[in-house]
From TrEMBL:
It comes from Carex littledalei. InterPro entries: DNA_repair_prot_XRCC4, XRCC4-like_C, XRCC4-like_N_sf, XRCC4_CC, XRCC4_N. This is DNA repair protein XRCC4. One of its GO terms (cellular component) is DNA-dependent protein kinase-DNA ligase 4 complex. One of its GO terms (biological process) is DNA recombination. Residues 230-248 have a biased composition (Acidic residues). The lineage of its organism: Eukaryota, Viridiplantae, Streptophyta, Embryophyta, Tracheophyta.
Length: 269
């Protein structure tokens, strides 16, 4: 696990009557099996280096693995937790005891760590303030990026909304046009159906079946398309001499064939 840093502003629940302020800043550096603290109230500063052995001993006292113990300490010192009482009391010789409460399986417990006075309180306070300033700059940059991303998403949402409204308008216009065409076609079909119904009614009123009436209409149309012969009776009676000759020959041939047939029958009898 990589080394992490955190800094929490802690409002003290149990204030030291000797102190004018009830706020401290707790900067923590977290390692896989140990941690260190730097605390300042703006005037003085204190520090604590919890070694691997000390953390392991505390974890064993609470029947916890080291990782679980560190996670719990990080939870309460990395950010002030509501419902927890924090205190920063004088432990003599310039030392301070930082403690906080929490509940575990329905029981309210308290953990505490003793801090030593910083040999260079100005430097320690400056380090805490520098960390807070850097964190504030990072947060400000992140806020700017988030704001820009939000504005971009807002513009994209507005563009999508306008596009959706345009699509809806086009859809409505298309449906209106299609509906108008459909109504026109439907009315045309209804008109043709009414004409057919009227024709059927007229035919039935005359006692004719629709099929027969249709045949008569076809016959009438055929008669109208037939060309009338406009010649005289004399022209119709005129026969071409060659046609007369061919007709006479044909008649003579049929008579001869008939006579032969009859003579053949007499010979056999």
């Amino acid at each position: 696990m990589a080394v992490r840093h955190s800094c929490a502003k802690v409002e003290l629940s149990v204030k030291d009557p000797k102190e004018e302020t009830g706020t401290i800043f707790v900067k923590a550096t977290w390692h896989p099996t140990k941690f260190s603290l730097a605390v300042t109230d703006g005037q003085d500063a204190w520090f604590c280096h919890a070694s691997d052995g000390e953390v392991k001993l505390r974890a064993e006292q609470w029947d916890q693995p080291v990782s679980e113990y560190l996670d719990l300490v990080d939870r309460y010192l990395g950010l002030q937790q509501p419902g927890s009482n924090y205190s920063f009391e004088d432990a003599g010789n310039g030392q301070r005891r930082l403690s906080w409460t929490f509940e575990r399986k329905g029981t309210k417990l308290e953990w505490r760590w003793k801090l030593q006075p910083s040999p260079n309180k100005k430097k320690t306070t400056a380090e805490v303030l520098d960390f807070l300033l850097d964190a504030n700059i990072r947060l400000s940059d992140e806020v700017v990026r988030k704001t820009q991303a939000f504005e971009k998403l807002k513009q994209e949402a507005e563009r999508c909304l306008q596009q959706s409204e345009r699509f809806q308008s086009e859809k409505t216009e298309f449906e209106s046009a299609v509906y108008s065409k459909f109504v026109a076609v439907l009315n045309s079909k209804k008109s043709k159906l009414r004409d057919l119904r009227d024709r059927i009614a007229k035919v039935e009123s005359k006692g004719k079946s629709p099929v027969k009436a249709e045949e008569e209409e076809d016959l009438d149309r055929s008669s109208e398309n037939t060309e009338l012969y406009e010649g005289t009776d004399e022209e119709a009676m005129q026969i071409d001499p060659e046609e007369k000759e061919e007709t006479s020959d044909a008649v003579t041939s049929r008579k001869g064939a008939t006579s032969r047939g009859r003579g053949h029958k007499k010979t056999r009898s």
